[in-house]
Structure formats: structure tokens, C-alpha cells
Amino acid sequence: MAIAISLVPPLSVVGLTLESGAPGQAAGALLLFATNVTAIIATGTVVLIGYRVRAAAVAAGRPVGRLRARTVVVVGLLVLVVAVPLGIGSYQVFRDHMIVMTAQPVAERWAVTRSWDVIGVTVREGVLQVAAAGPPPSADGASLRQALDEAGLADVHAHLSLVVGGSRDLPATQPG
């Protein structure tokens, strides 16, 4: 049952995301599938070797084939093949998090001096996304770029989304 739970949902997501035209998400789901298959095989191999199941089977008179070094090497290579993209992905998540942690206070200081509010700071596909809202006139993006550069983010492409106009109270028209 655990194998079905680990393998079927990621493969379903692969099919659904490919059908919906999202190959990047399909690749992520395929990586999850490959990670789960590799984890099942590697863990099973380690447990069976560690508990000496082969020796117990031989002692019980069961026919057992040879464990070849090639089998262990293939399992090790599977782990390596999955570990590389997982490591790259983990690094990208860490880098994106560090960019947001650096950019958030910079964007907030920039917005406050202009009577604006930062709605959100994220990184999407390697691009820093800053969203801000405030009153007219529209805020100057060049000054934000300069502040980001001074904060050590000169190598990070940024996109600024501005919502001009601010907010307004809309009181009730009928007594409540």
C-alpha cells in the first residue's frame, strides 16, 4: 500500500500537468516519482542486507541468487542521479529565500518613504517580484533598483508591480 501511495499520485500529477501545458511542473512531479522509487529500492536493499535476510534464507534452505556488486553500484547510481537535481533544487530554494530576506526590508524602506505599502516580495523563476500599492503619483522604480543594488542584489533581476490609487473607505449606505 505504501508503494502505491508513494508512486501513483506523482505519476498522476505528471500526466495532468503535461496535459495542462505545464512541463516544468511535470518535471518536478517526475523527480518526486523518481525520488520515491529510488528511496524504496535503496531502503529495501539496505534493510535486507543489514538484517542478513539472504543468510537467513540460505540457512532455511531457500534458493537465493548471488548478490552482485553491480546491483549495489546500480542502486548507488540511482541515489546519485536523484540527489543531484534535488541538491540543485534545494540550493535554488535557499538562494531565493536569501534574496527575499535581503530584499524585503529594502523594499519596505523604499515604500515607506513614498507613502506606499509593500504587498509582497517573492522570487519566481529567478526574478525578484516586488508588489507595492500607494497613492498617485506612481513610485519611481529606479530608486528601488538602486537600493537593491546597494543591498548586494545587483545581480538579481527584479520586477516591480505598482497598484496606484491606494485605498478608500466605503461606508454603509443603510443603517445596519
Structure description:
By secondary structure, the chain is an alpha+beta fold. The chain has 2 domains: 2-67, no CATH class; 96-164, GMP Synthetase, Chain A, domain 3. It has helices spanning 2-19, 23-50, 53-59, 69-112, 141-153, and strands spanning 117-124, 127-134, 158-164. It has a 3-stranded mixed beta sheet, covered by helices on one side. Helix 2 packs across helix 4 (69-112) and helix 4 (69-112) crosses helix 5. The longest helix is centred in the middle third of the chain and has 44 residues, at 69-112. It is elongated, with a radius of gyration of 27 Å. The mean pLDDT is 93.
Number of helices: 5
Count up the domains. Answer: 2
Number of strands: 3
As a whole number of angstroms, the C-alpha radius of gyration is 27 Å
Residue-averaged pLDDT, rounded? 93
By helix and strand content, what is the structural category? Answer: alpha+beta
- The share of residues in extended strands comes to 5-15%
Helix content: 55-70%
Low-confidence stretches: none
Q: What is the overall silhouette? A: elongated
| Order of the strands making up the biggest sheet | 1-2-3
What is the CATH topology classification name of the largest domain? GMP Synthetase, Chain A, domain 3
Q: State the separation between the terminal residues, measured CA to CA.
A: 56 Å
For the report, how would you describe the main beta sheet?
A: 3 strands, mixed
Q: Element order, helices and strands?
A: HHHHEEHE
CATH class of the largest domain reads Alpha Beta
Under the CATH scheme, the architecture of the largest domain is 2-Layer Sandwich
